[in-house]
Amino acid sequence: MAELWTLGAWELAELIRAGEVSCREVIEAHLRRIDAVNPRVNAITATLEEDSLAAADAADRARARGDAVGPLCGVPMTVKENIDVRGSATTLGIVALREAAATADAPPVAELRAVGAIPIGRTNMPEFGMRWHTDNALHGATVNPWSAAHTPGGSSGGEAAAVATGMSPLGIGNDGAGSLRWPAQCCGVSALKPSLGRVAQAGHGAGPVPFAFQLLAVHGPVARRVRDLRLAFEHMCGRSGGDPWHAPVPVHGPPLPVPVRVRVVTDLDGTEMDPQVAGALQRAAAALANAGYLVEEGRAPALTRASEIFTQIMSDHGRTHRERPPADAIASPGFVRFWQAYEPVWTRAAGERAFDPMMERASIARLWSAQLSRTPLMLAPIRTRPAFRVGSDLDPRWLDDWPDTMRTVVAVNLLGLPAVAVPVTSADAPLPQAVQIIGPRFREDLCLEAAAVVEAAAGTPTPIDPR
């Protein structure tokens, strides 16, 4: 049998269900992997060893009694530090919140725990989740296991690195501006950004959530295999947790006429793709075409304006207080430098101010809906360039075109659409690449099916040992 830490969530659940391994053996294997690898990548910030072993023992006793157990019984999972896990600190990467222990699980954590998954650790993130590189004053920087010189991405960079190195087969992060998909590209893993309203954002008693994050950000799973994303997703979107945006929609929609049409987004309103990213997009398109999808090249509607409206909404409605405290009072020097460099770029990225951004959002949404009615899937780059060298995002000149390189990412957030990030790379590549498959709202199933086709053709490049 392969080392348990190399297996995915689905495979581990099958072995436990068949009685070939115990829940405790699975948890212990991953805890040993964390001990061996985490000192080199700093992806996991807190190990829930005592609680996870107790949960594993309880699950093993339940199985021995013949009790019904959930489909993820004994499967370890890690959780980003801005998502509540009962008894563990929800720090947001902030020193002042290092003791802010949650009294209850966030809804998706509670749902996965209810079907047997076991939290084993918390994962690193940049302060407030507001940087595309993972570093903070509380825990320090996470290292990309493919190359220590390059970013693991952010803000779910710790989650992506933990999954990529086999410390966890399954993680939960979130995505308000590519925070799942960009780390997936940087670390060579898969991630699902669900539709708005699909996965509850906060539990009862949670603090105020700014309107921009209610509208633009969602929780989603990270894994090495697409089928593990599907397994987690299907068990994390049932309860509302008091989230007024939650929509209890079936996870499987009606079948589409075949062949299913896919638009490959190659026209990015003037932004050029790095050859490595363009090559990954071409290989993914070929995989879909070979599997019977009807593939065409084109553009995404109103891509630049979607990016501008996203920026305006996030700028105007992205905080809970009228007055914003100075960044240097609560954040690390690295974050302060980043924001000083990026704020002028961010301001320019808003473009011409809309009279009513939500009215423009609705107009853009109608354009995308019309396009997706003709071509139900879009295949697009995530960021148009690979993982950047650590420190690049502190250079104002380097940051100047960042919003242009992320247009296809934030358009998906603006419109509340689902997207799956899937690697298209080889294990011996210097850096991984990935693409995203975008679908109509609440049609994660279509995105996952297409992503599985790409994965079958491209292979799975992780888990890896840090290089």
Automatic annotation (TrEMBL):
Coiled coil: none annotated. InterPro entries: Amidase_CS (IPR020556), Amidase_dom (IPR023631), AS_sf (IPR036928), FAAH2 (IPR052739). PROSITE patterns: AMIDASES (PS00571). Residues 25-448 form the Amidase domain. One of its GO terms (cellular component) is endomembrane system. It comes from the Bacteria. PANTHER family: FATTY-ACID AMIDE HYDROLASE, FATTY-ACID AMIDE HYDROLASE 2. This is Amidase.
